[in-house]
Write a sequence for this structure.
């Protein structure tokens, strides 16, 4: 990993100045005072609790967890093991809305009457909440047995007994003030100002990517809250379908989730099926009397419809419930107010659970994978290539597939193809879902680590160059074989679904969105390319900062800046890059070297 030379570290002051102009930060810094002020700010940043540095230290504590999967040498748990452990943990856990001022000690003493507590944390989300994990499940029942349904004069309560409680103080003035502040865990992604501070602290582009990952990845607490939310929804669904499971999938569990990402849930009714799969005795076989409907899709729609009604009418904290039953994959979308998660509940996409497992495996195989994916996801977000609103945009899932494909194409490859993971599978890994072969080796320890030692900096640059030049018009991206293939259909972007191979996961992407992606990729490759040559220069913004800072990203005409007059900030940036390029005449073709066929 290349370290930034001491002189070039001062480049952050130039970046600060640019951002200060662009986003109104540090507006009164005079040129001479900048460096010492920046250094003081960084020292403060590194020493204060609640800062990026403190966050990084906290993240370190969790880095050994199976969810983060960033340490190469630690034996990794299988996805199914992690899921089961977390699910069982969530079933022993309760969510409590607390008064704003509370004595943590007394609170824990009070709850301990119901049994020993394994862990707890507080967080804020329109009020103060506590997540309390008991050591035993029985403690939850004990707490429920002494909990009453509130009665109000003006409204009537639906007497639903869940694991989401509200704690009231009988006598609020009796809480001593010195004991009334609790430490809250942060559940949201950092502001662009904090991101900016973070990038300033880093000493190399590799460090920038790693720091970005550690700051944006789901924390241990946020992960617990996600499993708890699923578990609370499971309790509601279990009223109709005893023995069902609600499992998180997508970025909440595949190790690529960013703080604030949605919570995808899968209502698994096969758990119920497994009871009836018990061995038949003698000549008899017992079946449930059931209602029949014309198709599996109608089954899904009927189940989701009734669960949607349930969440709407009885689900504590479930608001804005929408039943989107005519989508290709029917779903119920709602907000879970207490956790702040936007939830999508589905029930017929078991294959998506399997692709989450596959991504988890890829994320755990090499620590560079997640760092690169997070940076590309952030890059795409700040440039509005992705959006939380459905549309013709590239999705984070597609971007992740593109990174995996790119890493399969390196020499030597950093990631194995899905076909080679399939060849390593043994009998117990065999998995066929709806006729699709979803088999791959699940034990991470059976996969040989890559001999590739390329730096993150190089990979980031090469990613942009690779996709800036990719023949999207004729080739499709396919992680199963790890090589380009002829596109089977005419969508602008074709990324084969790894298991349902006839599906294109990016069918929604329009030609103009793809074009925007390609142009931004070329632009970013060029900027990084220039940077490598200007590393010694002391007054250039550098690395990820150049690509991610709001001062650059907010310029909507970033892609078209050669056609339209650029804003002052971008113009300054380009001017400064151009002027130093003239000191390296052989480098001036950097941009033109990028192939423009798409
Ligand atoms: N999925 C899929 N095919 C698609 C879209 C999604 O198989 N065309 C599956 C993937 O397993 C994906 C999951 O559904 O991970 C959830 O989709 P989505 O929420 O769109 O993506 P995430 O990976 O969760 O990313 P984000 O952080 O943007 O939510
Ligand atoms: Mg998601």
């Amino acid at each position: 990993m290349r370290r930034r030379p001491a002189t070039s570290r001062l480049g952050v002051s130039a970046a600060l100045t640019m951002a200060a102009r662009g986003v109104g930060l540090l507006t009164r810094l005079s040129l001479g005072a900048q460096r010492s002020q920046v250094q003081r700010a960084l020292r403060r940043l590194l020493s204060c609790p609640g800062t990026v540095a403190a966050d990084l230290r906290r993240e370190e504590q969790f880095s050994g967890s199976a969810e983060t999967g960033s340490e190469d040498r630690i034996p990794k748990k299988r996805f199914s093991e992690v899921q089961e452990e977390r699910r069982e943990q969530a079933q022993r856990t309760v969510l409590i809305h607390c008064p704003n001022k509370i004595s943590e000690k007394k609170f824990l003493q009070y709850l301990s009457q119901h049994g020993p507590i394994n862990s707890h944390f507080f967080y804020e989300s329109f009020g103060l909440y506590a997540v309390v994990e008991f050591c035993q499940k029985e403690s939850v029942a004990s707490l429920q047995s002494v909990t009453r349904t509130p009665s109000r004069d003006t409204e009537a309560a639906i007497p639903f007994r869940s694991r989401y409680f509200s704690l009231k103080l009988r006598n609020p003035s009796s809480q001593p003030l010195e004991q009334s502040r609790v430490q809250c865990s942060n559940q949201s992604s950092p502001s662009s100002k904090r991101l900016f501070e973070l990038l300033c602290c880093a000493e190399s582009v590799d460090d920038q990517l790693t720091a970005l990952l550690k700051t944006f990845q789901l924390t241990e607490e946020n992960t617990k809250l996600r499993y708890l939310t699923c578990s609370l929804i499971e309790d509601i669904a279990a009223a109709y379908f005893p023995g069902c499971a609600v499992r998180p999938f997508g970025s909440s569990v595949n190790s690529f989730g960013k703080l604030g990402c949605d919570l995808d849930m899968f209502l698994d009714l096969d758990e119920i099926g497994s009871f009836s799969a018990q061995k038949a005795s003698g000549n008899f076989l017992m079946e449930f009397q059931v209602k029949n409907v014309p198709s599996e899709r109608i089954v899904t729609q009927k189940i989701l419809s009734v669960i949607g009604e349930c969440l709407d009418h009885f689900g504590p904290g479930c608001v804005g419930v929408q039943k989107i039953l005519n989508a290709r994959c029917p779903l119920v979308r709602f907000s879970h107010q207490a956790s702040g998660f936007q939830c999508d509940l589905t029930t017929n996409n078991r294959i998506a659970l399997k692709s989450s497992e596959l991504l988890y495996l890829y994320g755990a195989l090499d620590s560079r994978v997640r760092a690169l994916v997070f940076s590309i996801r952030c890059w795409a977000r700040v440039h509005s290539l992705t959006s939380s609103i459905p549309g013709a945009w590239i999705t984070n899932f597609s971007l992740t597939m593109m990174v995996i494909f790119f890493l399969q194409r390196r020499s030597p490859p950093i990631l194995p193809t899905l076909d080679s993971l399939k060849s390593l599978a043994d009998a117990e890994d065999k998995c066929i879902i709806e006729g699709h072969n979803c088999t791959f080796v699940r034990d991470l320890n059976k996969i040989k680590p890559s001999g590739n030692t390329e730096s993150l900096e190089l990979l980031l640059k090469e990613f942009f160059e690779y996709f800036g030049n990719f023949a999207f018009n004729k080739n499709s991206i396919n992680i199963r074989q790890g090589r380009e293939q002829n596109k089977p259909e005419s969508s602008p972007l074709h990324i084969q679904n790894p298991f349902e191979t006839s599906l294109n996961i990016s069918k929604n992407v329009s030609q103009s969105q793809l074009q925007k992606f390609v142009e931004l990729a070329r632009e970013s490759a060029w900027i990084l390319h220039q940077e490598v040559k200007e590393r010694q220069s002391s007054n250039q913004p550098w690395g990820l900062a150049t690509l991610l800072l709001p001062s650059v990203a907010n310029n909507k005409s970033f892609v078209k800046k050669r056609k339209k007059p650029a804003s002052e900030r971008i113009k300054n940036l380009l001017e400064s890059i151009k002027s130093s390029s003239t000191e390296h005449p052989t480098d001036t073709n950097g941009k033109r070297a990028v192939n423009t066929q798409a």
